[in-house]
Amino acid sequence: MALAVQLTYPPEGTRAWTDGHTGGMFDIFNEAIIGPANRVVAAYDTARVHIFRNASQLNTAWRQTFADNKVRGGELARPPDLMEYFDNYFAHGHALALSQRVIGLYTLTINASTIQLNPFARHALSQLTTAFDPDLYEAFVEAWGTHIITRSLVGGMIEERAKVARCLNAGDDGVVAQCIPFSDRIPISSNCAYYADRARMISKRHLGGNIQVENDNDWRRTLAVGPALLQILEMVPWYDFVTDNSVKQNLRAIIRYRERNIDLVQTEAVRQVNARLSPCIS
Residues 38-74: pLDDT tens digits? Predict the structure, then answer.
């Protein structure tokens, strides 16, 4: 999505953030408020490992991030293609185990009440007509999104995926989750051996920083110069930046339409995928 906010910069070195991993200093634009990431990261980590045994669980996890207004990055950043998960996992008797380990550098906040839009965003808004033109408004949200992010968690993520038997200990995901041999852990007890032996690691990737660097510690040192958006903590809809009531209502309408359309598509996909699966007996 295009950058919408007009950013201004102070004299070099007068507002700076220091990277704790490298000691490097980075200038901060005037509109930014940089905050500590530790509390947000701790909350994120409470649901760090997910096990998805069917389409309902996967779709619910994605929806919940929006319901909580805490949209996550990585695998859960967009509506899941449920048929793809069926083909890659569920159809073969597998569940997806997903680990998202975040390294938060800072939270970035922009005061919504003082936001000034840049010339490109102002021009895009000026093209919106008072008469509702669905193609025009659809093109706007495709280019500019439905909201402006005003607070976010910034840093890096180590995301790993594993396959486990779809109905393995289906009544207690917690036991299975703590025994999957993701790269940051070893099985914590002999009881884990049974589950660890039945998990197959399939991928590991870095989000943010230099993704060509494989060593986790070395990669962390590259995050400050190329951080990723890890979580949207607060956002403001585009119609809050419009004064014309007709345009405001048109933007509301196109956003609601897109949300309803996604809901319908996802609900039908959940129904189709789950209809092909046998229930797990816990």
Answer: 999 998 887 789 999 999 999 999 888 776 667 788 9
Q: What angle do CA 89, 100, 75 make, to 5 degrees?
A: 50
- The DSSP bridge pattern shows strands 94-110 and 49-52 to be antiparallel
Residue 201 belongs to what domain range?
Answer: 16-275
Tell me, yes or no, whether 5 lies in a domain: no
Nearest to 175 by CA among 159, 155, 196: 196
Residue 7 lies in a domain: no
Lookup: tokens for 22: 């490298």
Full DSSP string of 152-209: EEEEEEEEEEEEEETTTTTT-HHHHHHHS--TT---SSTTHHHHHTTEEEEEEEEESS
- Structural domain total, the chain: 1
Which pLDDT score is estimated for 282?
A: 64
Name the band, by pLDDT with cuts 50, 70 and 90, for residue 184.
Answer: confident
CA distance 178 to 185: 9
94: which strand partners? Answer: 165
**How many C-beta neighbours within 10 Å does residue 266 have?**
19
Residue 74: partners with Cβ closer than 8 Å, 6 or more residues away: 100, 157, 159, 207, 230
Determine, yes or no, domain membership for 1.
no
Handedness of CA 67, 227, 36, 38 (dihedral sign): positive
Determine, yes or no, domain membership for 196. yes
Q: What is the mean predicted confidence (pLDDT) over 172-189? A: 83
pTM for the full predicted model: 0.91
**What is the Cα 270 distance to its own chain's centre?**
21
